[in-house]
Amino acid sequence: MRIEQIMSSPVVTVEMDDRLSEIKHIFDNTCFHHLLVVSGGALVGVISDRDLLRALSPFIGTPSEGHRDIATLNKRAHQIMHRDLVTLGPQNDVQDAVGLFNQHVISCIPIVDEDKAPVGIVSWRDILRRLQAA
Question: Model's pTM, two decimal places?
Fold first, then answer.
């Protein structure tokens, strides 16, 4: 089975200079766990919801929130994104994705075209859902 049969598409992307406040808004209002970071249309990074939680002050939205806590929302995507990317193309086999999940400590694999533009994303949950349906 090919990756394009199980990948989530279209993908939501952010730019390298987007503020964490915007990224937080996307995560807060969707069921996404990963955002793809692009520059000039090409994939340059990945941000997980866990990356965002680590980057933000735990006092945001609490009575003890201060100016320094709010300032963490002004950080930029490029400051917290993962740059060492593991990607596949839409024509790759699902077994290729399974191999990458077993080989690397990752929770998603961006799917890119020949120009490195993101066209989809696959998580290990996508693979498990497909196995359960089979």
Answer: 0.91
Identify whether the C-beta of residue 101 lies closer than 8 Å to the C-beta of residue 130.
Answer: no
Q: How many residues does the chain have?
A: 134
In this structure, the strands spanning 34-39 and 13-15 are parallel
- Give yes or no for a contact between 90 and 3, defined as CB atoms under 8 angstroms apart: yes
- Name the residue among 30, 36, 67 with its Cα closest to residue 51: 36
Q: pLDDT tens across 20-60, in order?
A: 999 999 999 998 899 999 999 999 999 999 999 999 998 98
Residue type, 126: D
In degrees and rounded to multiples of 5, residue 88 shows phi and psi of -135, 165
Angstrom CA distances, 48 to 44, 45, 108, 132, stand at 14, 10, 9, 25
Position 130 pLDDT exceeds 90? no
pLDDT > 90? residue 18: yes
Residue 108 to residue 34: CA distance in whole angstroms: 8
CB 74 within 8 A of CB 51: no
pLDDT of residue 119: 97
